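During the reporting period the student researcher (J.K.) took over the structure-prediction task from the postdoctoral fellow and processed the backlog of single-chain submissions. One of the processed entries is reproduced below for the supervisory committee.
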Amino acid sequence: MPKRFQDRTSTSARSIAAEQWSKARHIARELDKILDGIDPRHAAVIRAATELRLTTRQIYNLLARYRTERTVTALLPRLTVSRRKRLPTKVEEIIGTTLREQWLTLEAPPLAPVAAEIRARCEEAGLALPSYVTVARRIPALFSPEEIAKKRSANPKHLLRLKPRPGYIHAPHPLDVCQIDHTPADISFVEVVDGAGVFVGRPYLTIVTDVATRAILGFCLTLEKPSVLSVALCLAQAICPKDAWLAARNLNHAWPMFGRPRLLVTDSAKEFKGHAFQRGCDDYGIRIRYRDRGRVHHGGVVERLLGKLNGVLATYPGSSGRSVADRDEYPSERRACLSFADLERCVALAVIDHNFQENPKTLKVPFSEWQRNSTDLPDFRDDPKRVLLSFLPGAERQLSPQGISMFALHYYSPWLGILVPERDRLGKLEVRYDPRDISHIYVRDPETQLFRPVERRDGQLTPLTLWEHWAGRAHRRAINQRSSVEKVALRREIAAITEAAKSPRSRLRAAVRSAHAAAANPHAVTETQATAPAEHPVRQKNRLPVEDW
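J.K. obtained the following structure tokens:
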């Protein structure tokens, strides 16, 4: 809850201060002298009041609270809710109504002007004026923290912090529940490109973790933003054995965690909502569970491990820091020295090291937990390439006599020729492609239901990435682009030539038609000749007689 929602005068939301406990203990000692002493009660009360700098009435009230239990806790300041209200009922009603109308609003105004309005309303009604502290103490008694957070804040996180969040994940066995997520790596890598210079950038890290053992099953390090491809690569490594993958990178360490997850918990990113991802999970018997909006803690296991891996990477040259303040003036790009391949090996070693580390809370080692509880897991020994094809992005295309058209390219293979006569009955074929190399696509065979490679019809088998293909087409379009005037210039010349090439007979025919049209005026008959107005006779002017002198 934000600080402006908290009642500073209440002790319900604060721990017991040391001075409060010390004061209560001092009062308890003086009250013990009154209860256990032999002096007259009234004289003992007067002496205790002088010692504690309280009134005798306050001492008697403290005795009433302390006499029953004889504990220091009974003398601690009481909560605002448990205090007896001494204000008139009408004043209490004005305080509650005004606070709900003017303070418990989404604009979250301060309490001082609202308290002034309460005092003004009480003065108009002829009632006692409550103080600012009195009004502040009524807030926790009138409104719950949930109501304050809901009415005075538009941020749902403030209300979420007030709700209990017990553990929701119950995974007694490995692979019962797994989680997958992405994050930018907190380190920069450097890559020298022949003829193009040096590239420095931050990769993206995707991992799959097992909730029961807290082991990391697989990861994927990519230069592009999280996509269907990075999810497919990560799941292919998590589901299949990793011996060949480790040997290709000269890593002689054990990483025996693999298998098909029974339940995969993801967020609502678009790469987890696609048709290819859902169809691949259905193919391997993996159920998908999406985190509800606003419940980020449901993915706490994988996010914690992502932070742990980033913490390891942040200790090496090229660290980008978790924030601008954390990075300070550190020259991340100039200090970067790891290549992409070296960085991938470092991430693999960090993952393997985590699998052998003891969890400080549960005192369990992921590697030992996996070996002890994974004896009954089925070993499907899935092929990494086949798993990757199941999760790669895809589409549906209609087969034509020329093959399959995709990305403005044409693909054909001899085994597709057998399906050409049946193309109308087969409908659209399911196609998968790897964006890293579109020299081949993969079409599901209607008979075997397996994906088979299909190469380009022009015979170009040089590996070509999808983004390079689109960039090349955009470059060619930019080169071939013409202005709007250039596009119509030749058409204008054609029109001029056509106009000049018209035969004399056509021109004469047009002239005759114009003459006939001018001679035959149907409206000329109805027109009346306008007569000229008659001339008005000249009127002789009458001269006035002039008297001569």
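The committee noted the following: The chain has 22 helices and 13 strands.
J.K. will present the remaining backlog at the next meeting.
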